[in-house]
Amino acid sequence: MAWTHYQRVLAILMVITGSLNTLSVKYADLQIVKGQDEEPRHFNHPFMQSSFMFLGEMSCMLLFKIAFCYYTRQMNGSVDSNSLTKGSRNFSPLVLLAPAMCDMFATSLMYVGLNMTYASSFQMLRGAVIVFTGILSVGFLDRKLGSREWFGISLIINGLSLVGMSDFIMQNDSSVSTNSIITGDLLIICAQVITAVQMVVEEKYVSGLDIPALQAVGWEGVFGFIGICLAMIPLNYIYALPPFANNSRGTLEATVDAFVQIGNSIHLLMAIIGMTVSIAFFNFAGVSVTKEMSATTRMVLDSVRTLVIWAFSLAFQWQTFHYLQLIGFAVLLIGMSCYNNIVVPQLFRKIQCRLGRRQPQQDEESIITTAADDVADKNE
Fold first, then answer.
1. What residue range is the signal peptide (predicted)?
2. Most Cβ neighbours (<10 Å): which of 7, 121, 176, 361?
3. Residue 267: HSE in the Cβ half-sphere, 13 Å Cα cutoff
4. Residue 310: which of 167, 214, 193 has the closest Cα?
């Protein structure tokens, strides 16, 4: 099935804004700016970065309200048919509270990890969410995983191991210890457990509500922003050692120090703006891609996003190239494709048919280039 113009725009928007978001966060981390004590330091404020992210998500609520008011005044029923506003509005916003809290914890943990490791590794290691989502779905959604899914999970684990090994081998920056990079990688993987919980909760309690994408992202932004702001109060008084607390106060977060650093650097300010704006568009595009096309399409686009981030990091010498990372990403991609039943399983069946070990099924040729979700839709 050919994509519509709107779907193509969503796909491009997701790749561009998703890449820009991760790169903006990492660019902010790399900035060395004078803080509250006039000492130049890296911008090490992951919890503040999380608050800016949720602020960006909150802006989606404003956009939804503007679009809703505009199409309501049209008096032609477009409010129920337009892609920005269509969907159910009879739901309790509190149903999004639990996913938002999971998002808050996971994002904060990932940003702490990103501060210690490479942007490309950050993006690749997020593929671990499939492993944990699959396992949790068995326990809480009564889902049964077949041999294809388990094989995909095993490939993903191997791919993650290779990516982690590449980080260990290619570490050549004296300002960042190997232990910090490995710790960052582990924190990112741990965050995927929380993200998996979020996905399971959303599938169990939210997916059937047909909430408009902008409104869903907006409410999660509201809850997440309130949650992270409350969390930062004690974090400003909890002392820790570098690299977890590399700021003027020596605490896990130093809010005033963060604003001072932002005020002292136009480059840092632009990175924060880029992060805030891009996350709003990325979340809207991501939810819309899943809704308009399929979750498998979103996975493929996320892989393209990973390639963009990796290419950018290499081009601007944020990291060095190592073949293990390339192999690890390839194994990750194959594993995710197997798990989501995209291309690889169909190619395997086609090879079996060519070798005479399996009878071809109807429309098998066309399935090779079609996402599994789309095949199911055609057969219904």
1. none
2. 121
3. 11
4. 167
Q: Give the C-alpha separation, 100 to 142, whole Å.
A: 24
Q: What angle do CA 38, 40, 43 make, to 5 degrees?
A: 115
Give pLDDT tens digits for 65-82: 888 888 888 878 778 777
Cβ count near 174 (within 10 Å): 6
How far apart CA 229 and CA 220 sit, in angstroms, is 14
Q: How far apart are CA 276 and CA 282, in angstroms?
A: 10
> Residue 346 half-sphere exposure, CB side, CA atoms within 13 Å?
18
Rounded to an integer, the average pLDDT of 280-299 is 75
* Cβ contact 353:364 at 8 Å: yes
What are 164-193's pLDDT values in tens digits?
A: 888 777 665 445 677 888 888 899 999 999
Under a CB-based contact definition with an 8 Å cutoff, are residues 254 and 44 in contact? no
Distance CA 157, CA 22 (A): 23
97 versus 287: the higher-pLDDT residue is 97
